[in-house]
Specification:
Layout lengths: L4 H7 L40 H14 L3 E5 L2 H9 L7 E5 L4 H9 L7 E5 L4 H7 L4 E7 L11 H10 L3 E5 L4 H4 L9 E5 L13 E5 L2 H14 L5 H12 L1 H22 L2 E5 L9 H7 L6 E6 L5 H7 L4 E2 L9 E3 L11 H7 L5 E5 L5 H13 L3
Parallel strand pairs: 2-3, 2-4, 4-5, 5-6, 10-11
Antiparallel strand pairs: 1-7, 6-7, 8-9, 9-12, 11-12
Helix pairs in contact: 2-9
The protein binds pyridoxal-5'-phosphate (PLP).
């Protein structure tokens, strides 16, 4: 029988342990497996190639993303590296503007050296995506909502264009998770995750995922996963399975808190601009509503110049200044000097990553306490 999302989160993949009845998937902390004779093994040979704890997690993420094939990696960037290794010299990718900094870095400083090029396009403008397609283009790479301005791309519309021209659509679904958005159902070919964020959910494990529905792409990716070797360890696979069990209840609270805080911020007058796809004033509001089950819990806002943004980061008490996002605890970061520092100053101004921009990963603490902390920190920053 096919379970709904909230049951799949707990019982999807491989549910517990067949051998002992343990309700949790055991941690198979082994690098290799006994072979009963030459060419006779029990389905496992070497843990880079396959490990039962990782396999249970890989089946789980596939079940959640509604693809047939899942792969788990040691980080989001190991997952991205493996996907980008599908391409060869002379190939070109169309890439969303304001994507994750590390994705931009590996495209610009690593894969470009191997002759794989990219073109940055505002993928929220579907016509611009179609206009950028050429023979060399082999794939469109989208983040929605994108980092840090939460720009929303119409995934189904871009999928239609990609299909029409015979290009792959790759979607980084980290900010949404399969609980809120399932790109394969919208027509994407490859879904990528940094499991480090909401999927793990506790800021204690680095991990990454890829999910696909096509057997041919899956076979190539399994080959590359084993060939490149950036696999997730058994213990970390266990932690991810454990984290994913509570994804639904966590996301519900994350989103509830984020909506409350965004509305408070809008009425407070503290912010000159708020980027949050859950506000009707946001240009991506309608598309977000159409393609996802919620706006997510990332809010970016531009602090009014009356306040000193440097002091704000000193004054927060409950909220923590740190890189990363998607954990149970609220984190803020300063995109201009942290996640997006590699982008030249002029370009940052142009695209809206100004110095006063604050990126807020809303946690699952009490929303009133979070609002109180924001308020006291901003008031003390005059
Ligand atoms: C963090 C992140 C990544 C990279 O993942 P790591 O687990 O840090 O390697 C990729 N994409 C997005 C959207 C992210 O937020």
């Amino acid at each position: 029988m096919s379970y709904k999302m909230n049951s799949l989160l707990i019982h999807g993949g491989i549910d517990g342990d067949e051998t002992t009845g343990a309700v949790n998937v055991p941690i198979y902390q082994t690098s290799t497996y006994k072979q009963d004779g030459l060419g006779e093994n029990r389905g496992w040979e070497y843990s880079r190639t396959g490990n039962p704890t990782r396999a249970a997690l890989e089946k789980l993420i596939a079940d959640l993303e509604k693809g047939q094939y899942g792969l788990a990696f040691a980080s989001g960037l190991a997952a991205i590296t493996t996907v980008l290794s599908l391409f060869k010299s002379g190939d070109k990718l169309i890439v969303s503007d304001n994507i994750y900094g590390g994705t931009f870095r590996i495209l610009d400083n690593v894969f470009k050296n191997f002759g794989i090029t990219y073109e940055i396009v505002d993928t929220s403008d579907t016509a611009a995506v179609e206009a950028a397609i050429s023979d060399e283009v082999k794939a469109v790479y989208v983040e929605s909502p994108a980092n840090p301005l939460l720009t929303v791309t119409d995934i189904a519309a871009v999928a239609e264009i990609s299909k029409k021209h015979g290009k792959l659509l790759i979607v980084d679904n980290t900010f949404m998770t399969p609980y809120l958005q399932r790109p394969i159902e919208l027509g994407a070919d490859i879904v990528i995750h940094s499991g480090t964020k909401y999927l793990g959910g506790h800021s204690d494990t680095i991990s990454g995922f890829v999910v696909v529905d096509d057997k041919e792409i899956a076979d190539r990716l399994y080959y590359l996963q084993n060939a490149i070797g950036g696999v997730l360890a058994p213990f970390d696979s266990f932690l991810m399975i454990r984290g994913i069990k509570t994804l639904g209840v966590r996301m519900d609270r994350h989103v509830q808190n984020a909506v409350k805080i965004a509305n408070w911020l809008k009425d407070s007058g503290y912010a000159k601009k708020i980027y949050f796809p859950g506000l009707e004033s946001n240009p991506g509001y309608e598309v977000q509503k159409k393609q996802a089950n919620g706006p997510g819990a990332m809010i970016s806002f531009v602090l009014d110049k009356k306040y000193d943004y440097r002091k704000f980061y000193k004054n927060i008490k409950l909220i923590t200044l740190a890189e990363s996002l998607g954990g149970v605890e609220s984190l803020v970061c300063h995109p201009a000097s942290m996640t997006h520092a590699a982008i030249p100053y002029e370009i940052r101004q142009e695209v809206g990553i100004v110095d006063e921009l604050i990126r807020f990963s809303v946690g699952i603490e009490d929303a009133d306490d979070l609002i109180e902390d924001l308020k006291q920190a901003i008031e003390a920053s005059k």
